[in-house]
Write a structure and sequence with these properties.
62 residues, 0% strand, mainly alpha, single chain
Amino acid sequence: MKNRTGIMVAVSIILIIISSQIPSDESKMLGALQQILLGLGMVGCLLGMRKFIKGGSGKKNE
């Protein structure tokens, strides 16, 4: 699970860097990158919520 998080963070950073290099004058590519970043952020939030919900009950037996 740690590898997946690291990869998602790395991809997000790369996409942010790329989006900062694209001129913003009505660029469709910039809009697409923003949608991808929004999707990654939403997935990250859902994964965090799932980990929070499952975290309390998973470690009691150990």
